[in-house]
Design a protein that fits this description.
Layout lengths: L4 E4 L5 E3 L14 E3 L17 H4 L22 E3 L1 H7 L3 E6 L9 H14 L4 E5 L3 H13 L2 E7 L4 H8 L4 E5 L3 H15 L1 E3 L5 H17 L7 E5 L4 H15 L8 E7 L4 H7 L26 H11 L2 E5 L1 H12 L7 H15 L8 E6 L25 H8 L1
Parallel strand pairs: 5-13, 6-7, 6-9, 7-8, 10-11, 10-13, 11-12
Antiparallel strand pairs: 1-2, 1-3, 4-5
The protein binds pyridoxal-5'-phosphate and zinc ion (ZN).
Pyridoxal-5'-phosphate binds next to helix 8 and helix 12.
Length: about 400
């Protein structure tokens, strides 16, 4: 590993780059790799690079194992001018993370977690999750030949269990309090040498920087004014922000976009703290939103995200399930079908434009975090239609009806 340090996001205490425990011994806040201030994008054909390779200057690994990769990242940045025009913005981009190997951005963080586990000589990895992270760690862990452990709650429905099980990892339904399971997994990991690549662990956040790096490249280094990120634990938004900061430090871009943290109103601990001007999140009781991937009632990076927003000057907003469903349909009709979480940014942008926070000349990028096919139950909210007609009548049916 290169000579970088890990630093506590709250108290600044320093730790070794090899540390696996993601939180500070003194204040229990998340640790972060120090800001990389120098580096270049690897020259050459991105089609022949993995994200580990292309941006290797910004990561601590001396030996890169490209065979751990499933060619995640390099996802499209789609411009949807008709939606932009309708809501009164100059440009609206959608970073379509559903085109990752397991159909969500989690793959970026999983790859870097796995690479770190390998660098330290681990043979076992794991995750506590019922959603996209479980799927991602199961896929990457198994592929890398690690003994891979996925802990889920006992009552997880089959439609969520099977997409994890298919990759062949050790999948364990745990009977007990799911909130405690996260902390227990870290204990078990320490005792049994399992590297848990959970929600906002240090190297997962590092991996998320690559989405920012790519957006810079995709826009010829003319970064958007705002980047909107649907936020739960807070790992993704921290990573994306850090990515822009590092490219700025390295002189690759000349400014850092303002970050908009978007939450669902049925579970918005970061938003609640933000509007009350607090610097600590409080647990939300009885979270309830259709966007289950952003339903963490007590986000482990919540305080770090509040601090980040203060430093960056961005904002935080929450939107209702109804607004999310409308946004999902609007995006799908322009060819980008995201899961409900992924439609929170567009709903947020519409609201912020109405409120006048965003103005006509702003260029805004929304992070579409995962695929709409991940949560087919949302179809029921849409009153979807089709037509029926006899084969002999089809010609006239088309002529008469459309
Ligand atoms: C995990 C996830 C999020 C939230 O990311 P955090 O890093 O937990 O803030 C948002 N959308 C989707 C689809 C996810 O899977
Ligand atoms: Zn600390």
């Amino acid at each position: 590993m290169k000579d970088f340090k890990l630093i506590c996001t709250a108290c600044g205490k320093e730790y070794s780059i090899e540390r696996v425990d993601p939180r500070c011994d003194d204040c229990n806040e998340p640790l972060e790799m120090e800001l990389v201030k120098k580096g270049k994008i690897k020259q050459g054909n991105p089609l022949q690079h993995t994200i580990l390779e292309r941006y290797s200057d910004f990561f601590p690994f001396n030996e890169i194992r490209n065979d751990l990769s499933l060619n995640e990242g390099f996802t499209p940045l789609v411009s949807i001018s008709r939606i932009a025009k309708r809501i009164g913005l100059k440009n609206l981009y959608f970073k379509n993370e559903s085109q990752n190997p397991t159909w969500s951005f989690k793959d970026r963080g999983t790859l870097f977690g796995i690479q770190h586990a390998y660098s330290l000589g681990y043979k076992k990895v794991g995750a506590v999750s019922t959603g996209n992270m479980a799927v991602s760690v199961a896929a990457y862990g198994k592929r890398a030949g690690f003994d891979t452990f996925i802990f889920v709650g006992k009552n997880i429905p089959a439609e969520k269990l099977n997409p994890i099980a298919i990759y062949g990892a050790h999948l364990i339904r745990v009977d007990g309090d799911y909130g405690r399971l996260y902390y227990e997994s870290l204990n078990i990991g320490r005792k049994q040498g399992i590297y848990f690549i959970n929600s906002d662990v240090t190297y997962r956040v590092e991996g998320y920087k690559t989405a920012a790096f790519e957006m810079c490249e995709q826009l010829d280094f003319d970064v958007p004014d705002y980047v909107v990120v649907p936020t739960s634990a807070g790992g993704n938004v921290r990573g994306i922000y850090k990515g822009f900061l590092e490219f700025k430090e390295a002189g690759i871009i000349d400014r850092v976009p303002k970050i908009i943290v978007a939450q669902a109103s049925g579970c918005s601990p970061i938003y609640n703290a933000f509007i009350e001007g607090k610097d600590k999140v409080e647990r939300v009781e009885n979270p309830d939103t259709i966007a289950h991937g952003i339903e963490n009632p007590f986000p482990p990076s919540g305080n770090a995200v509040l601090k980040m927003l203060k430093e960056n000057g961005g904002t935080c907003i929450s939107v209702s399930d109804e607004e999310i469903i409308i946004a999902q349909k609007e995006m799908a009709e322009k060819g980008v079908f995201g899961q409900p979480e992924s439609c929170v940014p567009l709903a947020a942008v519409k609201k912020l434009r109405q409120q006048g926070y965003l103005t006509e000349n702003d260029r805004v990028a929304c992070i579409v975090t995962g695929s709409g096919l991940k949560y087919t139950a949302a179809f029921e909210k849409h009153n979807l239609k089709s037509h029926t007609c006899k084969l002999e009548e089809l010609n006239n049916f088309i002529k008469d009806n459309f």
